Amino acid sequence: MSSERSRDIYWRLSNLYFWFFALLGGLLPYWSLYLQDQGYSYLQIATLMATIQLTKILAPSVWGWLGDRSGQRVRLVRFGAITGSLFFAGVFLEPGFYGLLLVMLAFTFFWNAILPLYEVITLRTLGSQKEKYGQVRLWGSVGFIGAVAGVGGVLEVIPVHYLPWLLLPVFGGIAVSSFLVPSEKGERKERAPSGSLKAIVTNPAVISFFAMNFLLQVSHGPYYTFFSIHLEQHGYGKLPIGLLWSLGVLSEILLFLVMHRFTRHLTLRHIAVGALLLSMVRWILIAELTDVVLVLIFAQALHAASYGALHAVSVQYIQGYFGKHHHGQGQALYSGLTFGAGGAVGAWMSGFLVEGFSTSAAFLGGAVALVLAVFIAWRGLESPPGDR
Predict the structure, then answer these.
(1) Is 65 exposed, middle or buried (0-12, 13-18, 19+ CB in 10 A)?
(2) Contact 183, 62 (CB under 8 A)
(3) pLDDT tens sequence across 346-363
(4) pLDDT mean over 331-337
(5) Domain extent listing, the chain
(6) What pTM did the predictor assign?
(7) Distance spanning both ends of the chain, measured CA to CA
(8) Was domain 3-181+195-380 assigned CATH 1.20.1250.20?
(9) What is the pLDDT of residues 245-265, one digit of tens each?
C-alpha cells in the first residue's frame, strides 16, 4: 500500500470515529442534566440513560451476524447512521417519559450497530498494519473532547433545554462520514468448523474475560449516568464539568499513543489487573474527595486505565480468541454482554443508590463491583494466543 493511499485510508477510517464519539461527547455528560431539567426523577433518569447501553445487548449481535453473513458492513453502518438519526428526531416531540423511552430505544438500536461493525471494518482495512489501530481510534477521543468542551461552553450561555438542537449537526457528521469509507466487495464469511463458536465462548478464560468486562461496565454505570449531576451538586458549572469529562478522554488519547510500549513489556493479563485496580481507586476518589479539585483531576486522568487500557486490551483479546471466522460475533458479544448488559445494570442500580442514598454511594458501589472484577481477572483471565 503506497504512503499516499495509506494516508487516505487513515483519514477515511478516522473520520467516522471522530463524529461517532463527538455525539457521545455531547450526549453522555449533558443528557442527564437535560433529563433533570425536564423534571424526571433520579430513577427515571437512570432508566432512560440505561437505554443507551441496553440496546447494545441485542443490536450488535443482530448487526454483527448480518455483517458476517453478507460482508456488507459498510452498507450496514450507513443504514444504522441514517436510521438512528431519524429516530432521534422523536426527542423534539417531547413525548413524556414512556414516549422518550421508546424513542431512545429505537434510536440506540440502530446507532449501537455502528461501532462493533466499524471496529471489524477498521481492523480488516488496516490488515498487517493493525498497530495503527490506536492512531485511528484516538480521533474518536478527539471528537469526544471537542464536543464535550464545545457543548459545555454553549450551555453556559443557553439553557440545557436546547441540547437536542446542539446534537443535530453531529448526527449530520456521522451520516456524511459513513459514506467516506470505501465500500466492501461483498466478501462472505468462510464457513467455520461446526461448533467452533460454542467451544470459544465456553472456554473458562473467555468466560472470565466477559465477566471481568461486565463488572467493569457495571462500575461505570454511576459515571455515565450521574457524574455530571454529582459535580453540579458540588458546585461545578457546566463548562468545568465539560472540561473534567474532556480531561478523562485526553488521558485516554495519551494512553492510546503509548499503549504499544506497555504491550511489549507486560502481558495483557497484567495490564488488565493493574488497570482494574486503578479504576477502583478512581471511583473512591470521586465519591469521597469531589471538592478537592486536584484530586478530581487525578481521578479523571485515571480514565486512561478504566477505559483506554482495558478497551485496547479487550480488542486484542477478541482478535486472539475469536479469530477471523467469528470476529464479528466476538465483537458483538463483547459489546452486548459488557457495554450493553453491564452498562445497563450499572446505570439502573446507580439510580436506586442515588434515589435512596446519594451520588457518592453510587460511585462506591462501582468500586465494590471492581473488587470482584479484580478477583476474576487475577484467577481466571489468561493471555490470548499470540500474547507473551
Answers:
(1) middle
(2) no
(3) 888 888 998 889 989 999
(4) 75
(5) 3-181+195-380
(6) 0.75
(7) 29
(8) yes
(9) 888 878 877 877 776 667 667
